[in-house]
Structure formats: C-alpha cells, structure tokens
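#dry-run=false #mode=assembly
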Amino acid sequence: MRAGDTELEVCARITRELARAKVQHWLHTPYAWWGERTRFDWQGRWETAALPSARRLAAGEPFILDVAPLVAGFPADFAYSGLAGAGAGEGAATHDTLLRELAQLKQALLEWATPLTRTGLLCAQVEESIHAAGHDVVHTRYPANVLGHTLEGFPNFSTSAPRIGTGFQLPLLLTYATGIALHHLTGAPYPFLSARAPGRPLGLYAVEPHLGKARFGAKFESVLLIDGTETRWLDPGLFGEVLG
Amino acid sequence: MSEARRRKSPLADDVRIVIAGVWGFLLQCIKSWQTPEHGQNDA
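#status=ok
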C-alpha cells in the first residue's frame, strides 16, 4: 500500500495477484476503502457506494482491504485494516485505538461465541463492548446488518457462477438467499450472525466486526470455527497467518 | 414469545433482505459497467 494509490488501482492489483493463484470465482471481488470511507458515512446504497473509487490514499490515512475469493468452490473471506505509512496525526491515533479494541474483541469472541450462546445475544454483546469503549458500531451498516455470515454449504450449485461486474457476486447472493429459504422451509440454521438472528452459532463463520471513531473506521474479518468442544480462529493474530 | 417461534427469523424481514440484496446487486452491476475504471479489476 502506497500513498497516492487509488482504491481502484489497489483492487486491480489484488485481483491480478489472486488470478495468478487461479482464482476465477468470488463471493465478492476486492473492496478498498480509504480515509473517511473506512466508516461508511456515505449517502445511498451500500452496494454502490462501497465499490472501489478513484479516491487517492494520503500519507498517514487509515485504509481497509476486504476480499472473498472462491477456490474450487470453497470460500475465503478476510479483511485487513492498516495505515498508509508511519503517521502521527489524527488518523494514526484513531487507528491505533481502533486496532486495540479489535484485538480485544477478537480475543473476547473466543469466549462469547459458543453453541450455548444465542446468536442475537452474542451480537448484542459485541455491540455493547464497542459502545462501552466509546466507539461506533459500523458492521450494522452492511447489507443485512451482519456481524458475520456462515461459510457452511460450500461448494454448491452457485459457486462456479461467472463474475458479473464488481462487488458482491452471484455465489454470495444465491448462497445466502438459498440459506434463508432453507431456514424457513426446513428449519436449517440461519446463515447470518446479526442482532435479529434466531438460534445459536454453530459451524464455520466469516466474522467481521467493524468499528468507527471520529472520522475513521477499522475492521478485521477472519474465519471462526464454533463447534461443540472448541471455538477458534483460523488466524489467531489480529491480521494473522491462517493456521488451518 | 415461545422458544419454537424464536428459532425462526421473521419471514417479512428476510423477504426484505433478499429483495434488497437482488436490487443492490443489480444497481451495483449497472454502476460497475458504467464506470470504465472498474474494467481494470478484470483479471
């Protein structure tokens, strides 16, 4: 990441690198948000406002990258928050504060996310923790207001769908629409972690708490395994190496 | 509310989520096709 890069340029770079790794299908193509766009205070629909823009990254500004490729029908979904170069200004101070809270949340979720906890209460607990730290909750501004979404049920009929434009792709739309339909028709587990979600969390989830403070935001997105005997992150560090 | 009823999400809310998802997807497609720079993302 370099000051002067546009969101579009960096997303194109990520796409090229993933293409070298044989990625052809996506839950969503790369997103990049710079500066004030990291906290989603935009007007209009999320899906169009979130698309990468021609905005250039300035030195010392926070940024977020988020990408969800499919490989052989299996999804990954990870996000990273960083700062453009070493900074000592408003952006750097806010960014440090947000990363500390994200690190605490990542650790706390290991205790909070169990099959004994109601999903709605888990999400409420995360929101209370963010508010108690004096920060704003941003992940509720995502489509469906989700803290996370299941990664169960892949590969499926939709995962080889071709890419259409930029942003959310057909495998994401079709997988979660089908998941919602199956929830109502057969009582299958609800596919989202959100404050209004029924049931209890169980299985594999992409979890993406997103916080805001002052003009900026930060998030991580990592894969969390919740089963009957253990809860663990596939990448235990805040933005760490995936251990499998 | 009973335990059994709490096990399912309200249907109307979920219909809205799906419709909003489809509508958002269509708008996103139109915007990305209308923005030449998004072509740079294509591998």
